[in-house]
Amino acid sequence: MSDDAESTPSKLLIVDDKAANLDLLREMLAPLGHHIFFATSGAKALEIATSAQPDLVLLDANSDGFGALRLYQDLKQQFPDLTIMVYQCRNYGEVDRIKKTVADVLVKSRMNGSVCDEFSRDGLRVPC
Q: Which fold has domain 3-127?
């Protein structure tokens, strides 16, 4: 892997209908230098995925504002190679685990060209 691949910022799309979760994730992930996009609805997530072409989507599993499973299916149908990490964010400690998992997923995808079908760490599942 070249140094250029490692230094290129990744594009992350975080989809969550809870402002507090978005704030926590922004606080934890922004210092890593990624380009981060946020969506609070399924329609906005699809719009951003089309225009920004993110490397990774973080999708809240417990959203009240949209159906996470339906959005996951829509994203995979439109972008079959898109890596989507489904998460639950209930406290600050879980945000730290999400941060570590995001780093692992991005490193693995750059090394291998893609992430395995199911990557699991600390109960977080990353279907691709």
A: Rossmann fold (3.40.50)
